[in-house]
Automatic annotation (TrEMBL):
Organism: Carsonella ruddii
UniProt-listed Pfam families: Ribosomal_L12 (PF00542), Ribosomal_L12_N (PF16320)
GO cellular component: cytosolic large ribosomal subunit
Name listed for the protein in its UniProt record: Large ribosomal subunit protein bL12
Gene that produces this protein: rplL
Keyword Calcium attributed: no
Length: 114
């Protein structure tokens, strides 16, 4: 049923000229608050980056955890751990952040979420 409605709407839209189509797009954006700025802002608020702040006492275990999280090689993971304030992972949602923070904290590392 929904596909029929969508097909009918698309059929009607295809009969509009460019000016009418432009006006329709503007009205849809206004009606549903779909401005690009709002969408980008909402995406940014829901995505987080994790930075490694402190290594802790268990450097080898931390390297293994970083390797698991990032899918990097052992050497790349080691380099990442040794670099100050390194970006571990970006564009994560809240649940992913919490999971990664728990893993890193369990081996003595400290992170910052931005």
């Amino acid at each position: 049923m929904k596909n029929i409605i969508i097909e009918n709407i698309l059929d009607l839209i295809s009969k509009l000229n460019l000016l009418e189509l432009s006006d329709l797009i503007i009205k849809i954006e206004q009606k549903f608050n779909l401005k690009n700025e709002n969408i980008v802002e909402n995406i940014k608020k829901n995505k987080f980056d994790i930075f490694l702040k402190e290594i802790g006492d268990k450097k080898i275990n931390l390297i293994k955890v970083i390797k698991e999280i990032t899918n990097l090689s052992l050497k790349e993971s080691k380099d990442l751990v040794e670099k100050k304030n390194s970006l571990i992972k970006s564009g994560l949602d809240k649940e992913q952040c919490d999971e990664i923070v728990k893993k890193i904290n369990s081996v003595g590392g400290k992170v910052e979420i931005k």
